[in-house]
Amino acid sequence: MKNRFLYIIFIFWAVVISTAQDIQPQQDVIPVKTRYGFAINRLPVVNFNIYADFDPIKWYPRLYLAVAIQNDVLQFKKDEKGFTARYQISIAVRGEKGVVFKSTWKHSTSVKTFELTNSRSRFQYSAFPIKQIYPYDDVKIEPGRYNCLLEVRDLNAKTSYRSTREFNVPAADSLSKENPAASEITFIISPPRDSLMKLYPTGRVLRFNQQVYSFFRLKTGKPQDKPLDFNVRIFLKEKNQDILYYNTPLRIQPDSLSAAVLFKMPMDSLPEGDYLLRFETELNDHIFSHERDFSVIWFEKPVYLYRADLAIRPMRYVLSADEFERVKSLSYDELTKWMDQYWRKRDPTPHTIYNELLAVFYERVQQANKKYSTRFQEGWETDRGRILILYGEPDEVINNRYAATSTPYIVWVYKKENQEFIFIDKNGTGEFTLLKKEDEEN
What we know:
- The protein has eight helices and 22 strands.
- Helix content is 18%, strand content 39%.
C-alpha cells in the first residue's frame, strides 16, 4: 500500500514538472472586459508569492510562500461547521539544474454562510516557511533566479489551478562595501513573528487602502554601535519622470550582524498608480541604497469610476438640473478635474486617500445596475435604482409582487428617515415604478 502511494506521488510530480513549460506565469492583475468597451482590474482567483529571506545570524537563505484562493473557485460542502472546502497546495522549485525542492500541504477551511462560499472578494490565505537552505545540503540552492511551480487542487471538485512565478535567491556574501548583502525588498501583511513571515500574496501589486509593510534584511558585516537611520522615499512614476510623493525617516536598531528593515507603508496616502520605493542609509562609511517598483490598484473600484463620463450620469440625482447640464458640457479632462474636486470637498476623512462617501455612492450605483437593469434601462435609471442610490438598502421590504387579485407592489421602509416608498408593476411586466402621491390620490 505504501509503495502504491509513493508511486502515485511520483507520477503526480512527474506530470506536473513535465508540463511546467505549458503553464502560464502568475499574474497580479487580470483585465476583465466590460460592456462599456474598456477593461477593469481584478485579482486572479489564485494568487501566490515566494520570497528568499536570510537567517539573521547564520545568514543562510530561507524561503517563504504565501497563497490566497478565492472562495468562489473552491467547492464547499455543507457539514456541522457550516460549509467546508478541502484543497491541496503543491510547489516545485526549479533552477538551472532542474527541480531542487518540492512539497505538498493539505488544507481545509470552513465558512458559516452559503453566501460566503460564492464570495469573489474573500480569499483563503495560507503562509508557509517552506525551506531553510543549509550549505551542507545534498542539493545546493545557489544564488540566482529560480522558477516556482504552484498547483492548487480542489479535493472536493477534483479541479486544479497551476501557475509559475520567478524569484531570486540573493548572494549571501557582500559584493563590496558599497554593495552589502541584502535580501530583496518584499511586502508582508504583518510584522514577522518567530519563524513565520506572512508574505503579501501578489508580487508587485498592492491593494488600494489596504495596510501592508515593506521588508528586507541587510547584512551589516560587523556589529553596529548605533542605529541605522534610513531615508525612505516613494516616487510616483509618471510618463517622463519620477515625482517624489512621500519622504520619511526610519530608524532601525541592528542585531549583531544584520538588520531587519521593516517599514509600514503609507497606504492611506497612496492613490492608484506606479511607484518606486527607495531606502538609503550610511553603512560602514558608505551610502547603501535599496529600491524596488510596485503598483497600487483599487480592485474593488466600482465600474463607473473608471471613466468620468460614466461617473457623471447618476450624479443627476444629487445635482441641480442647471448644474448637471453645465457639468455635462465640460471636456473630458475638465470633467475629470471637476469630479475630483466635487468629491474631495465632501470627503468625510480628508486626511486619507480613501473617500468613503464617493465609494458608497458608486457602490450603490453598481448594486442598482446589478439588481434592476432592464433591456432598455440601466439599473440606476430605474425608480428603485434611484431610491437605492439616495437612501441605501431599505430596513424592511414588504413584497407583494405576485399578488393575484391586485396590482403587484413592493414597499421599501426606511425607519430612521421615517420614509416609505411604494413601487407598482402597472403593466404586469416586472418593471416596478414609484407610486407618487398624486397616483395614490387618483
